[in-house]
Design a protein that fits this description.
Blueprint (H helix, E strand, L loop, with lengths): L27 H8 L2 H19 L6 E4 L5 E2 L9 E2 L8 E4 L4 E4 L8 E3 L8 E5 L5 E2 L8 E2 L5 H4 L3 E4 L7 H5 L1 H4 L2 E2 L2 E3 L5 E2 L3 E8 L7 E2 L1 E5 L13 E5 L10 E7 L10 E5 L2 E5 L2
Parallel strand pairs: 3-8, 11-15, 13-20
Antiparallel strand pairs: 1-10, 2-9, 4-5, 5-7, 6-7, 12-14, 14-18, 16-17, 19-20
């Protein structure tokens, strides 16, 4: 199984679509190293094997892959700006941790956000620090913490996988949906007559690159009726991911070899669309 990631430095201009993670700050190098390591590839392969075994040996028809709740880990030592005082008195505190505070009803800490955690009649209130801030507390364990209102604590990742056999009726009914095919390229220009030796044509990528539509590279040129190339070659990399059709257009300039066109009409073919060149 091949899997890898790369680091886009600040100011990077994206040339295609893809999944990206931002705001990793000083953890970027460590995360890149982990996800490109043999350890991660081993874990990824084990997940794949578990799914294959569930389907092939236990006839599983629905598989859910999930993870335990997340955590925050900061490699570098934290500064005072990374900590906040709970500001409540001890008599109000029920439970204090690095990432949350539970108090008796009515407590109002100055720098923590209220969290709707208990029933209004329970007699308790809950609070959490903003972003990745820790509540000041004596003892070790400041860099590695659980709890709070961070994304990894509040959102549980779930992969819903439904295996479909190529021999099943469901697959045959939806083969066009499941099969991966390269995107197609069509001629967009309405004019089918060319009267100059140099001209421009517009092309259209029919589908957006997606789960079952892959990027395709096209080499475009004109041939005569005998299949002999009579123009220069242009390359189009059809990798547009936008769902807006106007964003999936390409503009190419062609030059016909002057010794080819004498004075006769020649029928040429471009992306399976006939174009007449007038010389």
């Amino acid at each position: 199984m091949n899997f890898s990631i790369r680091w886009f430095d600040e100011g990077f201009i994206f040339d295609n679509g893809g999944c990206c993670i931002f705001e990793l700050q000083d953890m970027r190098k460590y995360l890149c190293a982990l996800l490109n390591s043999t350890v991660f590839k081993y874990i990824f392969a084990e997940l794949k094997n578990a799914v294959n075994m569930s389907v092939n040996y236990f006839n599983a028809t629905k598989i859910y892959i999930t993870a335990d709740h997340g955590f925050l880990y900061t490699y570098s030592p934290l500064s005072e700006d990374d900590k906040v005082d709970k500001t409540t008195v001890s008599s109000e505190d029920v439970e204090v941790d690095r990432r949350y505070l539970i108090t008796t009803k009515g407590a109002k800490p100055d720098y923590l956000l209220p969290v709707k955690f208990f029933d209004e009649n329970a007699g308790y209130d809950a609070f959490a620090p903003r972003e990745s801030i820790r509540i000041k507390k004596s003892g070790s364990g400041l860099n590695f913490v659980h709890g709070g209102i961070s994304l990894q604590e509040m959102v549980v990742p779930v992969v819903d996988y439904t295996p479909v056999s190529t021999k099943s009726k469901a697959y045959r009914r939806n083969a066009g949906k499941y099969d991966t095919k390269p995107v197609e390229l069509n001629l967009l220009s309405a004019n089918r007559k060319i009267v100059n030796m140099s001209f421009i044509l517009n092309f259209y990528q029919k589908d957006a690159v997606s789960d079952n539509r892959s990027q395709a590279n096209y080499l475009l040129y004109f041939t005569d009726s005998n299949g002999v190339q009579i123009s220069d070659t242009q390359k189009i990399i059809a990798d547009k991911v936008s769902t807006d059709g106007q964003d999936r257009t390409f503009r190419c300039s062609f030059n016909v070899k002057p010794q080819i066109i004498s004075g006769d009409f020649r029928r040429l073919y471009k992306v399976e669309i006939p174009v007449t060149v007038c010389g």
